[in-house]
Amino acid sequence: MLTTRRRVAATVAVALTGALLATSCGGSDGGSSDGKTLKLWHYEAPNSAMGVAWKAAIKEFEAQHPGVQVKFEEKGFEQIQKTAPMVLNSNDAPDLMEYNKGNATAGLLSKQGLLTDLTPEVTERGWDKKISGGVRTISRYDTNGVMGSGKWYGVPDYAEYTMVFYNKDLFKKYGVAEPGTLGELTAAMDTFVAKGITPLANAGAEYVAQQYLYQLALSKADRSWVDSYELYKGRTDFHDAAWTYAATTFADWVKKGYISKKSSGLKAEDAGVSFVQGKSPILFSGSWWYGRFKTENTFDWGTFLWPESGLTLGSGGNLWVVPKGAKNKDLAYDFIDITLSKKIQNLLGNQGGVPVAADPAAVTDTRAKTLIADFNALSGKDGLAFYPDWPVAGFYDVLVSETQKLITGSESPDDYLSALQKAYDKGVPKT
């Protein structure tokens, strides 16, 4: 997510928490190690799959490192997103941190020299053998901070993708079948609007709204389009057919009542709660919500992939990064290693996450097996298209503010696309 947290995750991206871990002795070139504390920041909800798995990883870590002290600090996705460059360039840098992946985030920090090159550890500990090519893309960055090649600056221990979450009880109540096509999805939303229900849970103040719009564009795009946009392998034209369809359709959905104008100021948490409380029958968002919905939803619910689209938002999960100034790097590496162990990976899978190194036979939860199977199908057909805010630094904030204008109707789709083009072109590395 979130961005995108997540992904939110979001972006990706929800009711976010943080943690600091302790350590025993470990070498570091970022300062003197006290051998007693390891600061760890992450922003996953306690009842999310990652939150549950990483709590178990903390216990495992403590068992393997007797006498270490565990500290705790709460951090949020937005907080880390906005302050990371400043914090990592100070004496307050943690030893290990969850951070958003992509050119504009982890790539930018690597280019600025704020992250530790993890390549030697990746090779020595065999992490590269556990992390597949598609997920690995967001782990490596070149000298320009562009993902996909170069040194390892981050390690994901889960993957993520977006899907349509829907309230089966509300669908049944109003005689709506699970949509298999985009036409059936819009017909379903028309039915809910006719009953006075706003069908789509949305959040304009964070990643949710921009991800709806990006998915609409992806439904008219192909892999070369994604590579041009995300990896600069060609020119991106925001007035092309895909982006134009996305912006005009999104604005039209607001006019039709599928998306509330009041959602322009809402956060991702608000969108998730709206779905949990049964107020909104549909939420398009990421797998980072899965564990929470499994715990909190009091109604029958299910998921399906966005109809009539070969691409959807998704990638490896957010990254474990080790700041250049970390004081206890060796134990940060130990913790990453634990999160990639079969024990933690299997737990992550059964809690509703998408593990990267689990034993398939050990994942027994029915919904979790479906979640993982859908991800494997997407990954197998090269259907993961990353996130809209990744390409250039500062683009997340541009997408938020501009998409809010589409929701309120204060900007036309054409002006919206022109604003994105200007910000994108300004941020693309010059070759």
Task: Produce a short descriptive summary.
With 431 residues, the protein is an alpha+beta fold. It has helices spanning 49-64, 77-88, 103-111, 119-125, 127-130, 133-136, 168-173, 182-194, 207-218, 223-231, 241-255, 268-276, 290-296, 329-339, 342-350, 366-380, 395-408, 413-427; strands spanning 40-41, 96-99, 140-141, 151-152, 158-167, 282-286, 301-304, 314-316, 319-321, 354-355.
Describe the protein.
The protein has 431 residues and is of the alpha+beta class. It is 43% helix and 9% strand. The strands form three sheets. Strands 5, 6, 7, 8 and 10 form a five-stranded antiparallel β-sheet that branches. Mean pLDDT is 89; it is low at 2-32.
Give the topology.
Layout: E1 40-41, H1 49-64, H2 77-88, E2 96-99, H3 103-111, H4 119-125, H5 127-130, H6 133-136, E3 140-141, E4 151-152, E5 158-167, H7 168-173, H8 182-194, H9 207-218, H10 223-231, H11 241-255, H12 268-276, E6 282-286, H13 290-296, E7 301-304, E8 314-316, E9 319-321, H14 329-339, H15 342-350, E10 354-355, H16 366-380, H17 395-408, H18 413-427
For the sheet with most strands, the description reads:
5 strands, antiparallel
Strand content: 5-15%
| Spatial gap, N to C terminus | 28 Å
Summed over residues and divided by their number, the pLDDT gives a mean of 89
Count of alpha and pi helical runs = 18
The SS-based structural class is alpha+beta
Radius of gyration: 21 Å
- From N to C, what is the helix and strand string? EHHEHHHHEEEHHHHHHEHEEEHHEHHH
The proportion of residues forming helix, as a percent range, comes to 40-55%
**What overall geometry do the principal axes of the alpha carbons give?**
globular
Low-confidence stretches: 2-32
Q: What is the strand tally? A: 10
